[in-house]
C-alpha cells in the first residue's frame, strides 16, 4: 500500500507538472525553476507541438487538473509520512495546502485576492483532497487524545 501511495503521489505530481510545461504560459514559476537547470523548455519541440494542439483539450484539463493533481500528491505524501494516522497534528498538515488553495480561490471570487475565480478549480482542489482519503480509508487510523 505504501509503495502504491508513493507511486501515485509521484505520478500525479509529475503529470500535473507536465501539463503545465506543455500547455501553460512560460511566465509561470515552474519555467524559472527549470531554467535553473539550464533547460530551455519553452523552445522544446514537444511543447511547441502541444501548444499548437491546445484547442483539442478542454480548459479544465489545462487550467484546473494540474492543481488538483498537486493537491492529490501532497495529501498522499502527508498520509504516507504520518503512516495513515489521523490526529490533530497530522490533520493540520493534511489540511494546510488544500485549505490555502480553497481559501485563495474563494478570495478571488470575493475580489479580496488578485486572480480569476473558477468553480472548476475549487472542484479539483476538493477532489485532490478527498480522493486520497477515500483511496486509503481502510488504512486510516484515527487517534484521539484523552485529557488527563
Commentary on this structure:
The protein has 148 residues and is mainly α. The chain has one domain (2-142). Helix content is 68%, strand content 3%. The protein contains 6 helices and 2 strands, in the order ααααβααβ. The chain has a two-stranded parallel sheet with strand order 1-2. α4 packs antiparallel against α5, α4 runs parallel beside α6 (119-135) and α5 (88-109) runs antiparallel to α6. The two termini are 35 Å apart. It comes from Chryseobacterium ginsengisoli. This is DUF2809 domain-containing protein. Keywords: Membrane, Transmembrane, Transmembrane helix.
Q: Which helices and strands, and how do they pair?
A:
Layout: H1 2-23, H2 29-36, H3 45-52, H4 59-81, E1 85-86, H5 88-109, H6 119-135, E2 141-142
Helix pairs in contact: 1-4, 4-5, 4-6, 5-6
Keywords for this entry:
mainly alpha; 148 residues; 6 helices; two-stranded parallel sheet; transmembrane; globular
What would you say about this model in short?
The protein has 148 residues and is mostly helical. It is built from six helices and two strands; from the N terminus they run ααααβααβ. α4 runs antiparallel to α5.
Amino acid at each position: 500500500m505504501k509503495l502504491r501511495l508513493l507511486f501515485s503521489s509521484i505520478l500525479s505530481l509529475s503529470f500535473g507538472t507536465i501539463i503545465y510545461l506543455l500547455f501553460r504560459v512560460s511566465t509561470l514559476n515552474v519555467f524559472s525553476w527549470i531554467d535553473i537547470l539550464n533547460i530551455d523548455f519553452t523552445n522544446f519541440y514537444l511543447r511547441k507541438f502541444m501548444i499548437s494542439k491546445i484547442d483539442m483539450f478542454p480548459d479544465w484539463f489545462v487550467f484546473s487538473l494540474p492543481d488538483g493533481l498537486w493537491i492529490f500528491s501532497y495529501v498522499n505524501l502527508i498520509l504516507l509520512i504520518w503512516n495513515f494516522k489521523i490526529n490533530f497534528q497530522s490533520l493540520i498538515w493534511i489540511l494546510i495546502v488544500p485549505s490555502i488553495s480553497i481559501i485563495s480561490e474563494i478570495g478571488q471570487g470575493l475580489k479580496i485576492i488578485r486572480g480569476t475565480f473558477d468553480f472548476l478549480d475549487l472542484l479539483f482542489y476538493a477532489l485532490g483532497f478527498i480522493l486520497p482519503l477515500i483511496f486509503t480509508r481502510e488504512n486510516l487510523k484515527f487517534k484521539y487524545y484523552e485529557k488527563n
